Amino acid sequence: xxxxxxxxxxxxxxxxxxxxxxGGVYARAGTVESxxxxxxxxxxxxxxxxxxxxxxxxxxxxxxxxPVR
Length: 69
Prior knowledge:
69 residues
């Protein structure tokens, strides 16, 4: 992608949860200029995600919803 002025995008995004709470986010997007009717990968959209991992010193046991005491 060449450098230049910012370009407007239409973004469809969502947050999902796992047993311990926040799990991450996903996003699909297309430029306004692309004139996409449905934001989907096979229609030319870009996709991305962000996942969340518990830190090593977390007091939450993996696979549970409550802190370990």
